[in-house]
Amino acid sequence: MTAAVLFQWMLASLPEIIVITGACILLILGQLVRREQLLFWASVAVVLIAALATFLLAGEVRPAYSGMFVADRFAIFFKFVFYLATVLTFLLSRKYADIEGIGSSEYYVMLLFALSGMMIMASATDLLSIYVGLELMVLCTYVLTGFLRHERRSNEAALKYVILGAVSTGIFLYGVSLVYGLTGTTQLDAMAAAVSGDPLDPGLLLAVVFIVAGLVFKVGAVPFHMWVPDVYEGAPTTVTAFMSVGPKAAGFAVILRVFLNPLVAASDVWIIVAVIAVVTAALGSFVALVQDNFKRLLAYSSIAHAGFATFGVVAGGVDGVASVMLYLLIYAFMNLGIFGAVIMMRSGDFSGEVIEDYAGFAKSHPGLALLMLIYLFSLAGIPPTAGFFAKFYVLTALVERGFVFLAVVAVLLSAVAAYFYIRIVMVIYMREPERAFEPALTPFVRATLACTAAGTIGIGLFPEWFLRLAQHSAFGG
């Protein structure tokens, strides 16, 4: 290996190197310096420097590490979604972490390591490099889930997540081992080249099913969704906000890489994915109708949205991939926004986790109630918010590929989902206040709400530009 090749490899993975190096330095620095504000700003700076490096390297496709890693437009799009989710989580965490007593350096370090794992997943073009990124991400989220050490529900959520996560990882690795045994490679491109035009080997079909099962767990799709409500409810709310956007987007980045591989396409696995999409969207929508806890409701909302995004995977092609990518970008803005509204309610002994806590909120805080209305309407897919166009382009991709029946099912399930969002709006606007309280509206929370509201409204007003960006990034060429 020449020095020039090594330099090119390091250049391709420079953003990941920056984040991992920064996290390691902060881990040591956190033991020497007990100034949380310094650690907070240093963590934000690491992400911003990595984002700048990603932007500067965006001009060309950069393969690295013998075909196991690539820095292309597809990966760069997802990395900016991850940066957005991480920085906004940092901003939301500043006050909340102090209230909950979790504002230690390890908290920010774990978020940075989770970010690096997601970045590796977005750029991975080999099943083993996917696994490395996946494990780096989930090990950090296991720890973050149980960060409220003195709360039983947080410990219980972390334990459930670890056990079920280990099972899904084992399933994924078994699929990888089958692929390697039958094709002699774990690289996504070489996998398809290793298969002749003859009828597909049943063993390879089984391998694809195992890999699919391992990946859908990470996005919270049925039948591997059972961890989502408990983990979302038990984890610190800032961690829940991060997990609902970052790891989910990383999971879909890997799914799109894997599912658009000719080997997977030849296995007709889209039929399985279509069933998963319908059942996931249905379960998330219907179970959310009976939830009283806001975080559990948003957990089932997350499941329903994962199902809807999976419809874009079924559609495939440039339009299908672009629709999923745009969906995840919009979902990042509106979901972090609504979680920001929940986080700002955490003040003293008031948690804001029960839907009834928001009764009459519009009468005492009309501006904040309007922001929540925008986020909830966007999650429900009501125009002219960004959430409407997120769903519209997925439906358009389905219809153009001839999946009209799936598009009709998706519309009907979206109508069911709209009901439980509107139910919250009615509690906010139609009920009388039950108690007086003052939201913890710090400058950082204000900045987060302003950013997410601008994204939710801005993409809704100018969706074409963002769609073209997603299409331009769809196949990374």
Can you give a write-up of this model?
The chain is mainly alpha-helical and 477 residues long. It contains 21 helices and 2 strands. It has a domain of 208 residues. It has a two-stranded antiparallel ribbon. The longest helix has 32 residues. The chain is globular, with a radius of gyration of 21 Å. It starts with a helix and ends with a helix.
List its salient traits.
two-stranded antiparallel ribbon; mainly alpha; 477 residues; 2 strands; 1% strand
Low-confidence parts, pLDDT < 50 over ≥5 residues? Answer: none
Helix content: over 70%
- Main beta-sheet strand count, sense and barrel state: 2 strands, antiparallel
Rough outline: globular
H-E string: HHHEEHHHHHHHHHHHHHHHHHH
Helix-and-strand structural type: mainly alpha
How are the strands of the largest sheet arranged? 1-2
Taking all Cα atoms into account, the compactness measure Rg is 21 Å
> Which percent band covers the strand fraction?
under 5%
Q: What's the total number of strands?
A: 2
State the gist of this model.
With 477 residues, this protein is mainly α. It contains 21 helices and two strands.
Task: Give the secondary structure arrangement, pairings included.
Elements: H1 3-12, H2 14-32, H3 36-56, E1 62-64, E2 69-71, H4 73-100, H5 105-123, H6 127-145, H7 152-183, H8 188-193, H9 202-219, H10 227-234, H11 237-259, H12 262-266, H13 270-288, H14 294-315, H15 317-344, H16 361-364, H17 366-380, H18 386-400, H19 404-430, H20 443-461, H21 463-473
